[in-house]
Amino acid sequence: CLEALRRAGVPEAVVVDNASQDDTCRQVRRHGGRLIANPWNRGFAAAANQGISALAKPLILLLNPDAEVVGGLEALAEACRQPGVAAAGGKLLDAEGRPQVGFMVRRLPTPCSLAFEMLGINRIWPRNPVNRRYRELAMDPERPAEVEQPAGAFLMLRREVWRELGGFEESFHPLWFEDVDWLKRVREAGYRVRYEPRAVARHAGGRSAARLSWEWRQLYWYDNLLRYAARHFSPASRGLVAAAAMLAAMLRATGGAWSTGGAVRVYGRIVRLAAGRLVRGCKQGERLAPDAARC
User: Fold this and answer.
1) Beta bridge partners of 154
2) Of 61, 68, 170, 295, which is most buried by a Cβ count within 10 Å?
3) CA pair distance 76, 155, nearest whole angstrom
4) Which domain holds residue 269?
5) Same-domain status, 50 and 193
6) Are 265 and 295 in contact, with CB atoms under 8 Å apart?
7) pLDDT tens-digit profile of 205-241?
8) Residues 146 and 196 placed together within one structural domain of the fold
9) Torsion of CA 183, 203, 81, 134, to 10 degrees
10) What dihedral do alpha carbons 295, 177, 284, 110 form, nearest 10°?
11) Which residues contact 172 (CB under 8 A, 6 or more apart)?
12) Are residues 166 and 286 in the same domain?
């Protein structure tokens, strides 16, 4: 990843390591990268804020550890420098070299799109109108465009806008929805976001999430989805999302009862979490309690 950045002409790179158990820190030091080693997993949002704070450049590229730049960063910078633009995302390719349509650019989520996602409708009927719009399935990946939500895995942003909006919200811990929340605030502040297909990166996807246990993945994803809804939707829309979360969790718990009691306990906690959010919303900075993942 660092070698690819050097080949792409990036003058300075900061790697923020969230207490990884592999040889990441040693590799960064060996390649001469600038390292911030956290003693515990502070989450993607906090790590991104740390890395951006450590750089004085006007344009900052966020790059996930499972993404490798192929080229086109100057085109991405040009898109980011356009008047009124706060951020720009590039084209992500899978292992076979195909554009990751449905992931690399999406619309900002609506209550309906989140409900469809939780209830499994998008998996059963992936070409439904709600999912087609949410995942931008009809987009041409070879054409530049104004977009709402490019993937945070390969995102260039203007540092001054990041600072103006208070950075990434660190209560989205450890991952999921922190980039969506920031891009939502970007749009609410009147800025634009661009997609630039000449900027390309290969993206494996899912490596950070794969390090979490199944229980943690379920709890964190639902928790941060509900947190996003609490921060950005009306009371009625928050209620719809929370109700969909409770129904989805109960359906999955019913199915899980035939295989493992752990699934029942996890989805039971999600039902209680969604019910709590339905009643009281989400307090500023509130996070999922650590014991919520003990199953």
Assistant:
1) 63
2) 61
3) 9
4) 212-293
5) yes
6) yes
7) 766 777 788 899 999 999 999 999 999 999 999 999 9
8) yes
9) -40
10) -110
11) 43, 44, 45, 178, 181, 224, 227, 228
12) no
